[in-house]
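User: Structure please.
Assistant: Input sequence and predicted structure:
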Amino acid sequence: MADMLAQTGACTSMLYLSDHGEDIFDDARARYLHASPIPTYYQLHIPYVIWFSEAYRAVYPDKYRTAAAHSELPVSTNSVFHTVLDLAGIQTSVADSTLAVSNPAFTVRDRMYLGDHDDPVPFWKMGLKKADFIMLDKWGIDYRKD
């Protein structure tokens, strides 16, 4: 998709993420699929990619640089709407710049998991096992240890 956008030469950006991760026999637990009452690291850690065309980088260098500067920060899916609005330059009363990865006001928040009853719970309180915390630590993914 990025190649198709790049070929147009247009001033474009693209945001991609998955709505969930997947267990694919990743560790000794031999779990498969997703949507478990107790998720694993593999269900929680998803790709979040923002791509910018050369034209976009030239026209909006600050947006590109800000997003790049935030690339190592923990981000949740609740930032998508606000990031897309910010990337598009759309101003509205429902936009929250502190949730836009491309905005200097972006603020890291606790990442949440929607439990069985759609209640947001801090992901590290969902019953993760030692193997999950090992993976979080291995990849330097921050979480509260309380």
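The longest helix spans residues 61-69.
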